[in-house]
């Protein structure tokens, strides 16, 4: 670990441990448990020969910026706190901003960034698949009594670097703790490593002066000379503000989305399946196959499956600055194709609905065929507002 070596060269003893795997995954974790792990590491370090147990602190990076204050607030064994790329916002709000920032950096704009990404994470959180989504760091930070060193790279694309530090400072001030130093490093990314392209690429080198700051700051605070409310460095670059990410309304909930998907699979998938079954059984066909109905069935299925696959990909890569692929007209090429297909499906639904209405009045058409076509129309009717709500029918 680059940081551990750099800090050791400053005369510090550094303990590095692996993050737990049991109970920790993309969809499951507990900051309280992670904080207990950190305190366990503190206990181990305090027992090492040559280590002054009264001068042991915690360094927390990124997610550790939520975890480390929990540990520090719970223990008198922690004498100082160092936060790198720490976030003063709720995890869900930060993640939405990070994914949107990555997409914007890739040249993406419009409904995918402004509507689809926030909705995606709200649904994921509602389904219990996003850990600690509404964790509020302010009350915990307000209980931190130890001196705090906060470090941010000017080009942080994963934590909003302009909004987070003032929130953390306000929480510390509210708790009566004014022994903090906040420093912004130019040319640095989320981890305070150098970046040649404004945060997209992380170099192995630490920002000049970062390790030296940690060494001198720790020496001061452990010698009884804690700083008082110092904020310095160039202004961070944050092209867009974060926005609140409230829980979804009932019609946007994970349950409602699953119900809609079930309807689509039955309605869109059932249309060709019943035709295939009739052919295999060599039954007399009903009404002549409709091209528009086939478009609704195929277009709806491909749009749903494609959108699901694309959005899952964004979830899996969202913490890595999003990789949308080729961008055309401010939209990923894949998403643009899905939008075009969704529009075709919506138009075909209108045509099919008109044909179905006429078929009801025609006594010659079998009842089963009318029901089959009616189910397809029902799926298409629900598909239109669903596609609108996910930005598939918006620019």
From TrEMBL:
GO molecular function, one term: serine-type endopeptidase activity
Pfam families cross-referenced by the UniProt entry: Peptidase_S9
PROSITE patterns: PRO_ENDOPEP_SER (PS00708)
Record SUPFAM superfamilies: alpha/beta-Hydrolases (SSF53474)
Region of interest (Disordered), residue spans: 224-244
Domain (Peptidase S9 prolyl oligopeptidase catalytic) ranges: 35-192
Transmembrane regions listed in the UniProt entry: 258-280, 292-313, 333-353, 373-393
Chain coiled-coil ranges: none
Hydrolase listed as a keyword: yes
Gene3D superfamilies per the UniProt record, alphabetical: alpha/beta hydrolase
Protein name from the UniProt record: Alpha/beta hydrolase
């Amino acid at each position: 670990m680059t940081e551990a070596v750099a800090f050791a060269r400053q005369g510090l003893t550094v303990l590095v441990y692996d993050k737990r795997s049991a109970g920790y995954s993309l969809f499951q974790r507990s900051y309280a448990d992670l904080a207990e792990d950190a305190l366990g590491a503190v206990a181990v370090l305090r027992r090492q020969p040559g280590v002054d147990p009264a001068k042991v602190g915690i360094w927390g990076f990124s997610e550790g910026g939520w975890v480390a204050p929990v540990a520090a607030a719970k223990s008198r064994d922690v004498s100082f706190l160092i936060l790198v790329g720490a976030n003063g916002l709720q995890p869900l709000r930060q993640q939405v901003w990070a994914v949107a920032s990555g997409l914007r950096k890739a040249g993406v704009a419009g409904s995918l960034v402004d509507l689809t990404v926030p909705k995606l994470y709200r649904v994921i959180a509602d389904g219990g698949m996003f850990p600690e989504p509404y964790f509020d760091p302010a009350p915990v930070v307000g209980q931190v009594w130890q001196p705090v060193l906060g470090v941010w790279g000017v080009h942080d694309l994963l934590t909003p670097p302009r909004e987070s530090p003032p929130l953390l400072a306000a929480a510390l001030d509210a708790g009566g703790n004014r022994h903090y130093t906040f420093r912004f490093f130019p040319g640095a990314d989320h981890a305070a490593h150098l970046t040649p392209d404004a945060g997209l690429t992380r170099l192995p080198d630490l920002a000049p002066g970062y390790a030296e700051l940690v060494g001198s700051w720790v020496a001061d605070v452990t010698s009884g000379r804690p700083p008082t409310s110092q904020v310095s460095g160039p202004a961070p670059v944050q092209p867009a503000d974060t926005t609140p990410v409230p829980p979804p309304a009932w019609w946007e909930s994970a349950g409602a989305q699953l119900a809609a998907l079930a309807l689509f699979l039955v309605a869109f998938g059932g249309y060709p399946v019943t035709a295939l079954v009739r052919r295999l059984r060599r039954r007399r066909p009903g009404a002549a196959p409709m091209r528009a109905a086939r478009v609704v069935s195929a277009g709806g299925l491909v749009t749903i499956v494609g959108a699901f696959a694309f959005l899952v990909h964004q979830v899996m890569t969202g913490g890595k600055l999003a990789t949308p692929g080729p961008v055309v007209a401010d939209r990923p090429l894949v998403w643009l194709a899905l939008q075009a297909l969704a529009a075709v499906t919506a138009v075909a639904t209108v045509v099919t609905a008109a044909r179905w209405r006429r078929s009801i009045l025609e006594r010659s058409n079998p009842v089963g065929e009318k029901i089959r076509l009616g189910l397809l129309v029902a799926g298409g009717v629900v598909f239109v507002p669903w596609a609108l709500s996910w930005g598939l029918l918006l620019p």
